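Continuing from the previous page of notes. For each protein in this section, the sequence appears first, followed by its structure tokens. Read the first protein now.
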Amino acid sequence: MEKHNVDVFEDSDENLKSVDLEDAPLLCGYGGTHTGVISSWYDFAVLLIVFPVCHWGNNGHKGRWIGLGGIVMAVGSLVCALPHWMAAPYIPSENVHNESDFGQCTIRDEKQCTPASMSSWLNPYFWMFILGQTLHGFGSTPLFSIGTTFIDENVSQKASPVYLAIHAVLTTLGPVVGLFVGGFLLNLHDDFDRPDRYEMNSSDPRWVGAWWVGFLISSLAALIIAFPILAFARELPEAKRHRAKDVNQCHAINADLHKKSSKDTKKLPEIIWVGGMLKMIAICHLIALIFITGLLMHCPKRNFVGVNMPYGNDLHPEDHQPPSIKSPCNSQCHCSSEWNPICDRKTGRIFYSACYAGCTDKTENSNGASWSSCSCISNTTSSLLSSSLLDAVKDDSDSEDVHSGYCSLDCGYNTYILMITIFITTVSSFAAGIPSQQIMLRVVPFDQRTLALGINWTFLRLLGFIPGGILFGVVIDTTCLQWGKSCGKSTSCLVYDPSKLSWTITALAIVCKLLSILATIIGYMTYRPSDLDKGASVASSDSHGALHLVVNDDRNDQPIQSIHM
């Protein structure tokens, strides 16, 4: 039970990290590439240590290895949370300069830009996340390498797939827990623990949630779970009894099975054969491939004036330069680059900030902040609306139709379709995991299973997780419509193109899934059991009758045994 608690914690921790890292870059000016590197560094750390852990841990006390790994993970989570206390309280930059300046259009001197003293890649907070992810990788390696064989060698071979399936289910439950907890925590203010925090509403686009609390929860949970695991014996009480009955299972069913027990054969599932398992894996990936297209579902594109649509006085951007947030209507405002969008409810247009909308007056009410006397909104409205409607919006700047934040967006059924297709895709992808794991555990000698898992994890990192995180981060960055600016340098992305983002992510996911299917087909076509000619026939009986399996028994001087599954 403790082992499965570790499974839930590990995957909850991974998704807490992924959710937490969504808000942390906003404080440090990171883009998708930075976040991708931080995320992939976990897998790089696993790659560095997986073989030493598999080599020494396989012959050592597996419970202690897993428990110590949990402690290392706890330290890693604590390291990732430290930047919260090391950094100053989060205050939007427009409020740092002048408490009476709310980002509206005013005639003021240009603010002097103070360049960052170092590159974002040398930022100490970035390297603290790298250190934390390194410790996460080191600590989780025993769980997914030694932990799998620890389960397999302490239960019967018949029960092993069941326990490993429970292991897979709980590692799937972990991300769900992590996402829900992480999403809830991001609704808390980043500095809720500080009395001098800057008060703002969670609907404010500049809002930063309590990203660091998830790391603290992960750290505490790891410590609580690690100590019971450390108290485990080298092997569980039932392990010797299972080893006395089990044999090292084989690659395929004996060639004479059809002759000796054709009636019993009809009752056996096809996946007893490795080839059948490979077929099941391919089918699962194919189902996932079909439903991956659900990622094409997205919400309508928002209209950002100066970003993906022009101001009202420039209705033909194809004849001019691309849209710009600067316009004659805000040329006297001396606006800063602070991202603080406002919405014109009448037209559904969003402006970069109240300053770039030419607004001069701000009103606070129960519904938040509203703006008036907005020169750019009057120009945009008069250009976009017919003359019959113009009189109705002439006094728009005196109404509460211009408010801080984004305009409401109706995604229709797209959200539900996306959730259903992602669920089916995830289930299908994980369904391929158990037969893959069983093949790997059964086609290698009994004492080399941990090494086989280590090699498997190495290829997963080298070919999947490490380049995948970075690649997806770079691809996401290519769909950015507007980057934040600081002293003329790009920081994090402010606005994405939802259509382009959905198409590029879907295309990349389809390519990855096609590669998985191709690898499975190659495995099916090239698989040749090496021991069919010299293998021994092992009589085994279950509720359906006798079963003769060809085994590759690597235990010297032991007679082949009849097992009951």
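Done with the first. The second protein uses the same format. Note its length before scrolling.
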Amino acid sequence: MKIKPIPDEVINKIAAGEVVERPANVLKELIENSIDANANKIEIFIEKGGKKLISVKDNGEGIFQEDMINAVKRHFSSKIEKEEDLYSLKSYGFRGEALASISSVSKLRITSRTIQQPVGSQLYIEGGKFKYLNQTASPLGTKIDVEDLFFNTPARLKFLKSDNTELQHIINIFSYYAILHSDKYFRLVIDKKEVYNLYPSTLEDRIGLLFSSNFAKDLVVIDYENEKGKIYGFVDINLKNKKNFIFVNKRPVKNQLISKTVKNLIGEKGYILFFEFPSFFVDYNVHPSKMEIKFSDDTAVSNLIKEAFSISLNPFKKERKEISFSLNQQISKYKTDKFDILGQIEDSFIVGYYKGDLYILDQHVVNERILYEKFIKDSKEFLSSKNLKNPIKLELSPQGKFNFEILKENLEKVGYRFDENMNILSIPEKLTQTESYNILIEILESGEKDIEKLIKKIAEKLSCHYSITAGDKLRKEEAEKLIKEWIETENPILCPHGRPIYYKIPVEEIKKYVGRS
């Protein structure tokens, strides 16, 4: 078979497949163009999940008529002149691929006017083919209409999901940029119905408008900096919203290292995190979508997150706190740095006061967190083995049996022993036979190879098993000791399973509720 060059129109469609997988990718590129053009007002119109129409209108600098054609040519860009520019980018677009890719698989209309032009210009491209470039009346700025996406690539169109599914991706992209640029006006209209009308605001207010005022109110603030970088953002510990938004150097990104590190620390929680690193530390040139990035030092990023969460999730860590038990005293007396224990409710919840907030703590999960961290710090002590009187036969799927051969050595490090026929001879000292078996099956069927995760799984079971329970009445000394140890934990906000440990009520809110504000 003779090797021949691929025609340009085919190359464009191949490239479009990398940049434009779905309507949300188109929206991302168009919003970035508007922001790069210094727009502070961006209006978005969507029809039929973006399959029929994606339209973005802005009040940015506009495009000169003589630059219109170049704007849709591949590898034409106003941002890159030399290789070094790739490592010091301040703009979003830099590859010169987005509009070329979009125009090759849609009907693209660009209408624009700069402040230097008395009238605007309109360019129309259909399936990558030039149709016309005319002068037209236009306000300052640019409006880009993308109609009938994938009309000329039926196979691609077929793989798009339902309108509702595509809309969820579109709203997610919209949210990324609305969060990142809370100082700009954003409007989103879907099928002629206004969904968002967001005026410039603070970041916290913007988050509240996007998700809910209660969601914004209950967020835990993350704010930390070391010699490698800076992290700022919010974590939702109450499971109201599991959406995750990551920004690196003011760019929305997806990064497995960050996601995995955060998940290991707080479980399945919603969060919005902003990272700042030196430009040479981050490579954005990994994928045409520019959403995937690489770091030059993964360990530094992981350590930054761990340090930030350790400090930010513990509101008591900045200074050592005194604990007092003061059931029959007035709250007005408690405006001190002490954590004052007010009492116990139904022998299940400890009530306390600290710096203007009332805390209601679940005593079981408080104890769970304490024991969990003790077990993790001293795993050798609690991972000793005990022999079984009668060996237990492991019942595994073919995949589980395959995983057993890979994981056997690590499993023996955490207290298990086996014979050559996969019978269990010994289990971790402080686990029951049933607990040991269930954990083992879960590990083997999932194929988990990380020894730290194996230890954490066992520690979760142990901490739950040995903790005080609801209904246990606590003496004054026991409550004080429990709270003192809890304050010293690395993460006093969440239990090992990811549930909130306490419910916090600002006393000012109580005053407002009873009319004493």
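What the second structure shows: Residues 327-336 have pLDDT under 50 and may be disordered. The chain has 17 helices and 23 strands. We return to this in next week's lecture.
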